[in-house]
Amino acid sequence: MAQKSPAKNKKAAPRSPLALWEKGPGGRLLTNDAGCHAWVEEKDFRRVIAGGLGAKDPLLKRLSAGGFVRERMDFDGLADRWRTLNAHLGQGPGLHILVLTLRCNHKCLYCQSSAAGEGAKKTDMDLKTALKSVDFAFSSPNPAITIEFQGGEPLLNWNVLKAAVKRARQKAASSGKELKLALVSNFSLMTEEKARFLLAHEVSICTSLDGPAGLHNNNRIFAGGNSHAATVRWIKYFQEKYKKQAPEYRVFKPGALLTVSKHSLPRHREIIDEYARLGLEDIFVRPLAPIGYARELWGKIGYTPEEFSAFYGRCLDYIISLNRRGVVLREKMASMMLEKILNATEPGYLDARCPCGAAIGQIAYNHNGDLYTCDEGRMVGWEGDDIFRVGNVFRDSLRKIVSSPAARACVVASNLEAQPECSRCAYKPFCGVCPVYNYEAQGSLWGNMRSNGRCSLSKGVFGAIFARLKRPADRKILESWVAKK
Amino acid sequence: MRPETLVFKEERRLATKTVSVKVDLKKYSLDAARYAAYAVSGEAFVFIGTAGKGSVAVALTPKSGAPGPRLKARFIAELEDEALREAVSDNNRELREFLTLKALSPEKRAAAVPDSGLTPEQEKELADLISQVEKEIKEDVRGAAADPLGVTSTWEDKYGAKKPRKK
């Protein structure tokens, strides 16, 4: 980063640095709006804040490079970082979640997607709604969109899924828009024929894997058989296809999501080993949220933010130790945050944006054509409270959806500059709040961050990441997770 | 026991646990007191009231078992921290605004456009035309003023329909 010469500012009075701070192990973490960070020892902190660094002070050079010293700022470089870190502003909705059915053949302990029984066919999305939803998604001004097929179990509505995939590919060809298609499935209904269709249409595949068989099957109850066996079988199938690739189309590496329940907490090694055994290169250590059915069962399956933070730290350490032994495995949440922290790049994670992705970054399309700020907002609607409903795919325009009262309220409530705690927090450049979580857990879109479980949990995750970035050996491995190839 | 009696007893129980801190507004701003109050609001109910000229009284009532003196000490520590954060924020407000404006300004994107191959006269003519159109757009209250980033525009509004790509 080129810096302004300090000579011109020789006579200027020392000024405090442009920084937010947080207490950490052995010092303070400083961050700024451009997403730069630096550690200073506690003994130096007051001196730094008072702007009392002399020209020969070694700290001056280090802090100048991070844009903390106002007399030595690279305005172009910092503005560039700010811009790329906040690249989502002005793009329009990029993620379009089509809930093809609420039916599911699993009865997971923590189910957050508010699934209905297998017989509830009235909760299937019909063909007309699916095609209209695809067309609606393409009306977004975002040049790159992702259509994600979800449920319930979306394979229970296979014909509609197939038609929606074909329509989306046709629309992508005619519009010139970049399109990603993604399917989230438990794999229990996957067949060779379905898999071939999905591969040929470049649909990326993601499933749930909660760890070894005992733990997975305990969390993800499948009356029709062994959930873990079906999941593992198809992960291996898609891994094999990925390795071989195909001349006519791209084959994506399959992904898997871990949902952490209370039962997972003592078993981090077994869970991570299971992912490594299957050759999965990413593990997303996702906390449960007290939304949907999980809220009712929180006492049995939930945990405190402190318990999750400790678990997350153990997971990170173990994954890093596996990396040292040559295993390719990254923790997904850390990877996304490292994209922001190290590369000042917006990784497309809608849960940690300012403002949040509600309607302006994503839209959830319910089976009946109703549109919601996000999938979590849709789940609240399923419980009988339509506060996050932003319109209907047949009746409303994109403009009306994005400027609906619910969307506006979520944008205002998730503006970190207006959140008293967040506006002062060192993790602000990388974080985001969730109005749906706040509403469900604390009874208001704004919430109260000082007693907010999600905030405590995020602070725990950031604390764990920054603590490991401070250790040179760990930092090297974390940097490799987001190194530009 | 009647419900009103229960409420009264609870109020009395809480009142006995309440601790109060007087904040001198010559030393700390009201905003710093408010932020500090928010910072302890996870553990305590906080009530800010006037306390004579130039000061406020902050009453802290623990939500659970947190002892009053510890809560008071935490509030004072938060107040000091907030005063420091406020000073840093005030010192840098204009600089922050400048940087944010710079990041959001389209200047950078314009600079990245490759050489158009036009003569300086043609460039000026084009620039005048663009500025005239931009002025017209700004006057269209329904469009630009309501949605400067074009988030609510459709793909076709923004980019127009494209021809299918050749395979």
List the helices and strands and how they pair.
The complex is a heterodimer of chains A (485) and B (167).
Chain A (H helix, E strand, L loop, with lengths): L19 E5 L2 E5 L5 E4 L1 H8 L8 H8 L9 H11 L9 E5 L6 E3 L18 H12 L5 E7 L7 H18 L2 E7 L7 H9 L2 E6 L4 H7 E3 L4 H18 L10 E6 L7 H10 L4 E6 L5 H4 L1 H4 L3 H20 L5 E2 H12 L18 E4 L4 E3 L2 H8 L6 E4 L5 H5 L2 H9 L21 H8 L10 H18 L1 H10 L4
Helix pairs in contact in A: 4-5, 12-18
Chain B lengths: L2 H15 L1 E6 L5 H10 L4 E7 L4 E8 L5 H37 L2 H5 L8 H20 L1 H5 L9 H5 L8
What does this structure look like?
The complex is a heterodimer of chains A (485) and B (167). Chain A contains 19 helices and 15 strands. Chain A has 485 residues and is an alpha/beta fold. In chain A, β6, α5 and β7 form a beta-alpha-beta unit. The longest helix of chain A is centred in the middle third of the chain and has 20 residues. The two termini of chain A are 21 Å apart. Chain B has a three-stranded antiparallel beta sheet with strand order 1-3-2, with helices on both faces. In chain B, α2 crosses α3. The mean pLDDT of chain B is 79. At the A-B interface, α3, α5 and α15 of A face α2, α3 and α7 of B.
Short description:
The complex is a heterodimer of chains A (485) and B (167). Chain A is an alpha/beta fold and 485 residues long. Chain A is 41% helix and 14% strand.
**What is the terminal separation of chain A in angstroms?**
21 Å
CA-based gyration radius of chain B: 29 Å
Which oligomeric state applies?
heterodimer
Strand content of chain A: 5-15%
* Shape annotation of chain A: globular
Shape of chain B: elongated
**Structural class by helix and strand composition of chain A:** alpha/beta
How many strand segments of chain A? 15
